[in-house]
Design goal:
Shape of chain B: globular
Distance between the termini of chain A: 44 Å
Structural class of chain B: alpha/beta
Structural class of chain A: alpha/beta
Strand content of chain B: 25-35%
Shape of chain A: globular
Oligomer: heterodimer
Helix content of chain B: 25-40%
Strand content of chain A: 25-35%
Radius of gyration of chain A: 22 Å
Number of helices of chain B: 8
Bound molecules: adenosine-5'-triphosphate, magnesium ion
Radius of gyration of chain B: 18 Å
Largest sheet of chain A: 11 strands, mixed
Order of helices and strands of chain B: EEEHEEHEHHHEHEHEEH
């Protein structure tokens, strides 16, 4: 499997012109949000009536909702009428060579060890395509199609597999779920759709695909992944390369559905622009991610490495509905400079013998504020449910902060719930110990941090783990000494 | 190879080292003994460059270079190794990974090829055998959950891998059982050579039965009050430190 992934990766890094998204002509609609705009978006995408109706219901619900204020984050008011809700992805200006790329970004590329060709791709430099991009796409898709796997953009899925989309859309995150998810439901632009049929094990990490398409992810992304009975899929979202975007507000929704005996692994590396050293600019990332273990013995694992964004508000959770189903959440969230993260998970135990594991590692440096917020709910009928939570915080310097808010709601006395938490500081003595062994302060910090995050990195696919580790060291650069 | 002249150092607003003079030649082993709190570990940390300690007076030459002008990592790369009295734990950080990185920065500094994983493992296995260390050690996090004795042994193991020019052992014998003490002493002895120098801080004459010192110094209250041959250690064992209260000058 790894060799085939590699070839595809090689091919993919040379691909640049068209991704898998259908080309949409460059069009912009007026700023602001109204029923008209929602209709316009739906019309542009030639959506069926039921989907327009769904969007409209979401929009009307959204009008009655208030932006949540419970998060441990601070930011100025967002003017929702000053956002353009539909814009075809702009083509980035084609640059002639990497020399034209912002040196700061290039430096980061190099630190991350991103291959030259890929650097060009990510920054919009014209590349000599050795392989025709269409053929790469085709190879990839053919392979999946042979197995009956559907993997395409959300819009394509609406056109080509409306019955599947209709069956599952909103079943995990209903349009009325929360302020940001509801906004997304009204105006979502595009995203990804995957369906793994019964008994099929998806033979490749769906990672390279995202590498090439990541630059086109929009402001209001919508992803839906369904693993049918006995299916397996490992999905990688995001990109370790620094991502800039003119849109400050991002509100994505991801829904996962695992039927009987199915397994979904969903891994994210998020490296959106965090703002500058003084806290100016930066992406606000308000995401709703939720998986439903609908079937017996099903399993959903969320793994996330969050280093970017000025504000991260995100609680990937699992609804453990099927008996014996398993939910896992492994997270590393770093905040440096003026970044703020309020992140965690929700594990909702409904079925019998359901198990959940939560491992959260928060790293704060600079003036960063890192909050873990986790809910474990064990419903009345969830006999013999089990949860294990571990929340560790690491502080670098003394201007940053770590906060932990674990919520427990236990309605069944047969449940076992374990919670461990720790807060530590990178000690002067630890750094000195490393330096006494010849390591620079920077290497020392990186090593201490990577040790701290080990349990989470272990969950990532190999090649991604290495990148994620490098990414962490880049994002914490200059935080000590 | 190491020349310490009138070294004064303070920490937390208090002067701890109050004029240390010490001269060690290549290949020698010097022992430092002295009561609790007399400044032995402080001397070791100051030599290694711990940022918390402020040198207020004096100079230190290491192989002719101004040691005090170097960062801790530069000192380490130049061949100064400190086996800590209290080695710190680094949770989650793999011992082998850590040691390989350390060794390779030092090799790079010496202009030697960095070792790849295979070469590193070959070297490390050999050293582990010498020091009777279990291979499982390698895959454990640095010092995390190690017993007191294991931590000490790990320090000597690291020293044996990076092969420094000067090894400073701060009470490496404390906490070791008798067998471990012999193993560690043998390990140190195996490293002794005409080029390699050791500064051994200890409370117990017993260690010096195995690692035979050329010179024994007594440190009390931030000063070296007496220096002598290995017999001095025996005398101390017998009489304690009381009789040395009055510094001997000259
Ligand atoms: N970081 C520090 N902050 C405050 N005081 C310190 C610090 N380091 C050392 N001291 C003080 O300096 C004095 C000497 O300490 P040091 O650790 O050098 O003693 P020692 O000779 O190694 O003792 P022992 O035999 O118990 O190991 C002690 O009084 C100690 O409390
Ligand atoms: Mg001491």
């Amino acid at each position: 499997m790894s060799t085939s992934t590699e070839t595809i990766e090689q091919l993919a890094t040379r691909e640049y012109k068209h991704g898998f998204y259908t080309d949409i002509e460059q069009e912009v609609i007026p700023r602001g949000l109204s029923e008209e705009i929602v209709r316009l978006i739906s019309a542009k995408k030639q959506e069926p009536a039921w989907l327009l109706e769904w969007r409209l219901q979401a929009y009307r619900t959204w009008l009655t909702m208030k932006e949540p204020t419970w998060g441990n984050i601070k930011y100025g008011p967002i003017d929702y009428q000053n956002i353009i809700y539909y814009a075809a992805p702009k083509k980035k200006p084609a640059l002639q060579s990497l020399d034209e790329v912002d040196p700061e970004i290039r430096r980061t590329f190099e630190k991350l060890g991103i291959p030259l060709e890929e650097q060009k791709l990510l920054s919009g430099v014209a590349v000599d395509a050795v392989f025709d991009s269409v053929s790469v796409a085709t190879t990839f898709k053919e392979k999946l199609a042979e197995l009956g796997i559907i993997f395409c953009s959300f819009s394509e899925a609406v056109q080509n597999h409306p019955e599947l989309v209709r069956k599952y859309l909103g079943t995990v995150v209903p349009y009325s779920d929360n302020f940001f998810a509801t906004l997304n439901s009204a105006v979502f632009s595009d995203g990804s759709f995957a369906y793994i049929p019964k008994g099929v094990r998806c033979p490749m990490e769906l990672s390279t695909y995202f590498r090439i398409n990541a630059k086109e992810t929009g402001q209001f992304e919508r992803t839906l992944i369904v693993a049918d009975e006995g299916a397996y899929v490992s999905y990688l979202e995001g990109c370790t390369a620094p991502m800039r975007d003119e849109n400050q507000l991002h509100a994505a929704v991801v829904e996962l559905v695992a039927l009987d005996n199915a397994t979904i692994k969903y891994s994210t590396v998020q490296n959106w622009y965090p703002g500058d050293k003084d806290g100016k600019g930066g992406i606000y990332n308000f995401v709703t991610k939720r998986g439903k273990c609908a079937g017996v013995n099903s399993k959903i694992t969320w793994t996330q490495v969050e280093t970017g964004s000025a504000i991260t508000w995100k609680y990937p959770g699992c609804i453990l509905q099927g008996d014996n189903s398993i939910g896992e959440f492994y997270s590393v969230a770093t905040t440096n400079n003026w970044q703020q993260a309020d992140t965690g998970t929700k594990m909702i135990h409904l079925g019998k013998n359901t198990k959940s594991t939560i491992v959260s590692k928060g790293i704060s440096a600079g003036h960063g504020q890192n909050t873990y917020r986790g809910l474990v709910r064990i419903a009345k009928g969830a006999r013999s449910a089990h949860n294990y939570s571990q929340c560790d915080s690491l502080l670098i310097g003394d201007k940053c902060g770590a906060h932990t808010f674990p919520y427990l709601e236990i309605r069944n006395s047969s449940a076992t719930v374990e919670h461990e938490a720790s807060t530590s500081k990178i000690g002067e003595d630890q750094i000195f110990y490393c330096r006494q062994r010849g390591l620079s302060t920077e290497d020392a910090v990186n090593m201490i941090v990577s040790g701290f995050c080990k349990e989470v990195f272990r969950q990532l696919p190999m090649e991604f783990a290495v990148e994620a580790q490098k990414l962490l060291s880049v994002s914490l650069e200059g935080s000590v000494g | 190879m190491l020349k310490v002249r009138n070294l004064h150092a303070r920490v937390a607003g208090r002067e701890i080292l109050r004029g240390i003079d010490l001269s060690i030649q290549h290949g020698e082993v010097h022992a430092i003994m002295g009561p609790n709190g007399s400044g032995k570990s402080t001397l070791a940390r100051v030599l290694a460059g711990h940022p918390e300690y402020e040198v207020t007076e004096g100079e230190v030459l290491f192989e002719g270079e101004d040691l005090l002008d170097m960062d801790p990592e530069e000192r380490a790369r130049a061949g100064l190794f400190l086996a800590f009295q209290y080695p710190v734990e680094i949770p989650g950080l793999n011992n082998a990974y850590f040691l390989k990185a350390a060794l390779n920065t030092m090799r790079k500094h010496r202009g030697e090829e960095e070792l790849d994983a295979m070469e590193f493992m070959t070297l490390v296995r050999e050293r582990m055998k010498q020091l009777d260390i279990d291979e499982a050690f390698l895959n454990r996090p640095v010092n995390e959950g190690f017993s007191g004795g294991e931590k000490k042994r790990n320090e000597i193991f690291q020293m044996a891998v990076v092969e420094p020019k000067l090894g400073i052992l701060d009470e490496t014998d404390s906490g070791l059982d008798i067998d471990a003490l012999k193993i560690v002493a043998n390990g140190v002895n195996a490293m002794r050579s005409a080029e390699r120098t050791f500064l051994v801080v200890t409370h117990y004459q017993r260690l010096l039965n195995y690692i035979i010192p050329d010179v024994v110094h007594v440190l009390t209250d931030g000063r070296i009050v007496r220096s002598g041959g290995k017999e001095l250690a025996l005398e101390l064992e017998d009489k304690g430190y009381g009789w040395l209260e009055e510094p001997v000058r000259g």
